[in-house]
Design brief:
single chain, 158 residues, mainly beta, ten-stranded antiparallel beta sheet, two-stranded antiparallel ribbon, globular
């Protein structure tokens, strides 16, 4: 297992064309098993998912997001595919689906970039067009102090 820094930028455009952005940077762990890369990190109060652990399973042709803890979810992103899931919270269960329009994951020089474009449906009704820009890099330590390189403001591919 390797310590990593995980930067997640999420862009969400609703039916009126308004776009919101959420960005956070956290630490996590990376490991590989049978050719599949796994990234795990703890969610925080900032994301509204405190008490939840997120795992990204990066396969050759798809990405799976699994959340456990106070929120439970298992969502698959496969370019051109539709995936249904349930989003379980302490307040109830929500039926969700994503239609993945584009998916690209690249791993080079200790840095992984994941770019996902998808439409979100809740209870069988279209909610928003979304983009996720996830960047993962190895955490560097210098003189006993952690250094974080990367991150930035809420900007990304348009």
């Amino acid at each position: 297992m390797t310590d990593v820094v995980v930067s997640v930028k999420g862009f969400q455009r609703d039916g009126t064309g308004d776009e919101e952005c959420m960005e956070f940077v956290t630490t996590g762990r990376r490991y590989q098993r049978d050719g599949t890369i796994y990234i795990t990190y703890d969610e925080s109060e900032l994301t509204g998912l405190e008490g939840t652990t997120t795992m990204l399973k990066i396969c050759v042709d798809h990405v799976v997001l699994v959340r456990t803890g106070s929120v439970r979810q298992h969502q698959e992103f496969r370019s051109g595919g539709r995936s249904r899931s349930t989003y379980t919270t302490p307040y109830g269960i929500v039926d969700m689906a994503v239609v993945t329009r584009h998916l690209n994951a690249s791993d080079h020089d200790g840095r992984m970039d994941i770019y996902i474009v998808y439409d979100l449906e809740i209870e069988k009704s279209w909610q928003s067009s979304n983009r996720l820009v996830i960047t993962i890099w190895e955490e560097k330590k210098k003189d006993g102090y952690e250094t974080v390189a990367g991150g930035g403001h809420c900007q990304g591919r348009q």
